Amino acid sequence: MTASDAERAIASIDAIAEARSRVLARIAEAAERVGRDPSSIEVVAVTKTVPADRIRDAIAAGLTVLGENRVQERQSKAGLLDGIVPPPSWHLLGPLQSNKARRAIELFDVIQTVDSVALAQRLSRIAAEARPGRPLSILLQVNVDDDAAKSGFEPADLERDLGEILDLPNLAVGGLMTVGRLVAHADQARPTFAALRDLSERVRARDARLGPALSMGMSEDFFVAVEEGATLVRIGRALFGERPPLG
Ligand SMILES: *Cc1c(COP(=O)(O)O)cnc(C)c1O
Fold first, then answer.
1. At a CB cut-off of 8 Å and minimum separation 6, what does 88 contact?
2. Euclidean distance between CA atoms 55 and 46, whole angstroms
3. Residue 158 CA, distance from chain mean position
4. What is the pTM of this model?
5. Is 183 helix (H, G, I), strand (E, B) or coil?
6. For a pocket test of ligand 1, which of 92, 93, 139 has the largest count of ligand atoms closer than 8 A to its C-beta?
């Protein structure tokens, strides 16, 4: 590494660390408004389209829980991110096709987007072989808004299927996840977040094997999600800047 490479890296780490501080401050303010402990909320830094060297800078800036929405993209950067101590943890945030389930288990610590009983069964089966004795952490994605463009369980289907999923032996079902609608104003996302929290409370009252995690809120609305109970917020642009337009 030349001196100017080192300077560039330091400037990049500083910029991400500042963005992280701003996000954490807004989380703390939102948590305080509703009497929650800010340390109960974790930031998942969403690194889709972010190159591996900037991901290294993000880890150096203190972001140690990272998310990608495609197995392929995570895999293409994995070799460039080897050997980081302690290793960050990786969450899958996008739809998982069943033929990529094995790869996903190798590359991710948490799969946030389990959206069918069939996928849960497959993950449980593969986890038994690939990581015996260590249940795979998953979240169940819920299509709270009944949005045709979104994946996830319909709430009624989740209530029907939950017991069957919780009976699977090699999964740790940490809680629920939702992707909100695109809204013009952050506050318009509130009903979606409140509905996910209500659903979680209702089903957990019946079956406490479902964990309490609520993954909801992104750059535009994470502070509203925190007010409504989010335990995981998934943040890309507020940390890394705008993404290049989809090709
Ligand atoms: C891209 C993405 C995010 C982050 O979105 P930002 O608006 O950049 O914060 C969060 N969740 C999912 C599922 C995503 O695909």
1. 59, 63, 64, 65, 66, 81
2. 10
3. 19
4. 0.96
5. coil
6. 93
Best mutation site among 22, 23, 44, 46 for ligand 1 pocket (most ligand atoms within 8 Å of CB): 46
Q: Which residue has the tokens 């290793």?
A: 87
Single out the residue of 195, 186, 196 nearest to residue 141, CA to CA: 196
H or E element in which residue 52 lies: helix 52-60
Identify the pLDDT of residue 3: 76
Q: How far is the CA of 4 from the centre of ligand 1 (A)?
A: 32
Tokens of 7: 């300077």
d(CA 194, CA 199): 9
Ligand 1 atom closest to 93 (CA): 13
Average pLDDT for 34-50:
98
CA of 8 to the centre of ligand 1 (A): 26
Residue 5 token pair: 């490479």
Q: How far apart are CA 94 and CA 246, in angstroms?
A: 15
pLDDT 10s digits, 94-119:
999 999 999 999 999 999 999 999 99
Residue 46 CB partners (closer than 8 Å, separation 6+): 66, 67, 68, 69, 93, 218, 234, 235, 236, 239
- The amino acid that residue 2 corresponds to is T
Give per-residue pLDDT as tens, 200-240.
999 999 999 999 999 999 999 999 999 999 999 999 999 99
What would the pLDDT profile of 177-206 be if each residue is shown by its tens digit? 999 888 899 999 999 999 999 999 999 999
Please list the residues that pair with 131 across neighbouring strands: none
Output the six-digit token pair for 147: 């949005």
Pocket of ligand 1 from Cβ distances under 6 Å? 46, 48, 69, 93-94, 179, 218-219, 234-238
